[in-house]
Amino acid sequence: MESRDYLEMSFRSIECFTNDGKLDAKELGRILEIAERDGEIDHNEIRVLRNIISKITPEELDDDMKKMLQVVHDKING
Question: Which residues constitute the domain of residue 9?
Fold first, then answer.
């Protein structure tokens, strides 16, 4: 059966962006945890993660976010 985690990930990202208009490293980390909880990151989850990352603004790119983006990159391209 196909995982529906990507739907929860999308919902959580919308919550994060509408909360204060920004996504921080902790929020992205929690979204990544949803993707990983079944032991693998599937193509829908990768699509959602890439979509979320594409919406990150330069103002959100602090050191913590840069580190988290590297973690996500390594996991979805590894």
Answer: 5-77
